[in-house]
Amino acid sequence: MIEDAEKDGERRGGSPQSVTRVIRLLEALCVSSEPVSLADLSRRLKTPKSSLAALLRGLADEDLVVAADGVWRLGPGAFGLGSALTEARRRLQSSDLVRDGMRRLAARSGETVLLAVGDHDGDMVTYVDLVESRNVVRYSVSIGDRRPLYATAAGRVLLSMCSPSAVDAYLKRVTLTRLAPGTEIDPAALALAVEQARAKGCAQTVDQAAEGVTGTACVVRDAAGGVVGALVAAAPSARAAGRLEELVRLVRDEAAAISRSLGFR
């Protein structure tokens, strides 16, 4: 029955289970500082030993893994493949990977998508790239525009990457002014909003930096775990009102996909 299900998955265009297992198997060996036994791999991957043994034999034939004394480690073929992938990634610039993800999010959400980064002084975000919505009514911003951290979804999610003490220091240092009638300027409420963004891995603002604009933002990370910036879907609040959770899901999924393409695991 399992075999039939896998064949059905291939016919539907989904990832064959064996391919997924190979990827998870190589990832498990990559993150382990010591060779790993078949039993341990089976436990980590929640996969029968018989299935893993067959995959390991195939990988060993290509020198991707090596067996020694009943344990497994990466083989020379894996490092050669890793070098080739690193070179390919160098040729395909990270900015291209980010922009590809921005285009996907714009197509899926129907909204303007932005990439925002924090300024060196730590008080503002700058929009460094955008893909505009094709809707006639859409949010528009210019590359290079800057906004206060506290009033934007991008700024709040970037603040959530900082320690609580750093967030408190920022809120004491910055002058909190209303950019729209509904802009939150109470330090305690803003600290709570940042904490909620930290817990959810996403920030969402409604009518904060500008009246009539809803922003949804998640962080994009690179291979080293560093913050590349905040991926933002910006929408007219009237259109976003009935799809706030959908926007969170779309932005979160695409931020994760971009981060994976940059090597973050």
Structural description of this entry:
This protein is of the alpha+beta class and 265 residues long. It has 2 domains: 2-89, Winged helix-like DNA-binding domain superfamily/Winged helix DNA-binding domain (Arc Repressor Mutant, subunit A), CATH 1.10.10; 92-261, Beta-Lactamase (2-Layer Sandwich), CATH 3.30.450.40. 49% of the residues lie in helices and 19% in strands. It contains 11 helices and 9 strands. It has helices spanning 2-11, 17-31, 38-45, 49-61, 76-91, 94-109, 153-159, 164-173, 187-200, 237-240, 244-261, and strands at 36-37, 65-68, 71-74, 112-118, 124-131, 146-148, 203-206, 213-221, 227-236. Strands 6-5-4-9-8-7 form a 6-stranded antiparallel sheet, sandwiched between helices. A 3-stranded antiparallel sheet has the order 1-3-2. Helix 2 crosses helix 4 (49-61) and helix 8 packs antiparallel against helix 9 (187-200). The longest helix has 18 residues, at 244-261. The radius of gyration is 23 Å and the shape is elongated.
CATH architecture descriptor text of the largest domain: 2-Layer Sandwich
Level-1 CATH class name of the largest domain: Alpha Beta
Oligomer: single chain
Instruction: Write down how many β-strands occur, each being a DSSP E stretch of 2 or more residues.
Output: 9
